[in-house]
């Protein structure tokens, strides 16, 4: 694992529909704002191990850790552009995905 520099969250894609998911306290969520935040290298390694187990169980694909910053309202927000876009939903059709509704994201 790379040297721990920033708090991190675990991100993946749902195996069946490809939706972007974030690891919450009780399992996978569609809303990054409720993701579990790793604040130490040990916590990040535990999250990554959980992601690998979920990958091995064929629940998700492409599980990896994302560097985040804590927003003024206390929620984790990805630092890098790619993951910022992944929190919004598809960028080619604004009538689909998370940006198409103003409702809460729900969980898996």
Tell me briefly what this model is.
This protein is an alpha+beta fold and about 110 residues long. Helix content is about 20%, strand content about 25%.
Helix fraction, binned, reads 10-25%
Order of SSEs, N→C?
EEEHEEH
Number of domains: 1
Inertia-based shape = globular
Distance between the termini: 28 Å
Q: What structural class should be given to the helix and strand makeup?
A: alpha+beta
Number of strands: 5
Strand order of the largest sheet: 3-2-1-4-5
Mean pLDDT: 86
Rg, rounded, reads: 13 Å
Our count of helices gives: 2
Proportion in β-strands: 25-35%
Low-confidence stretches: none
Largest sheet: 5 strands, antiparallel
What attributes does this structure have?
five-stranded antiparallel sheet, 108 residues
Strand-helix topology:
Blueprint: E1 8-14, E2 20-24, E3 27-29, H1 41-56, E4 60-70, E5 76-78, H2 81-86
Antiparallel strand pairs: 1-2, 1-4, 2-3, 4-5
Structure explained in plain terms:
With 108 residues, the protein is α+β, with helices and mostly antiparallel strands. It has one domain. It is built from two helices and five strands. It has a five-stranded antiparallel sheet with strand order 3-2-1-4-5. The chain is globular, with a radius of gyration of 13 Å. 24% of the residues are buried.
């Amino acid at each position: 694992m790379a040297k721990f520099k920033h708090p991190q969250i675990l991100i993946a894609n749902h195996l069946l529909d490809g939706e972007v998911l974030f690891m919450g306290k009780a399992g996978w969520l569609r809303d990054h704002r409720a993701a579990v935040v790793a604040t130490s290298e040990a916590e990040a390694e535990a999250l990554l191990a959980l992601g690998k187990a979920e990958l091995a169980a064929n629940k998700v694909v492409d599980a990896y850790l994302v560097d985040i910053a804590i927003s003024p309202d206390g929620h984790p927000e990805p630092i890098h552009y790619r993951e910022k876009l992944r929190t919004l939903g598809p960028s080619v059709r604004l009538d689909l995905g998370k940006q198409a509704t103003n409702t809460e994201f729900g969980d898996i």
